[in-house]
Amino acid sequence: MQLKTLYFLFLAGESIWIVLIVLTPYVSARGYQARSEVLYYCFSFVCHQNPERSLFFWGAQVPVCARDFSLYVGALLGTAAYPRTRNIHNPAMPPAIVLGALLLPMALDGVTQFLGLRESTTLLRCITGFLAGLVVPMVILPLMAASTPSDQNTE
Question: pTM score, two decimals?
Answer without folding.
Answer: 0.92
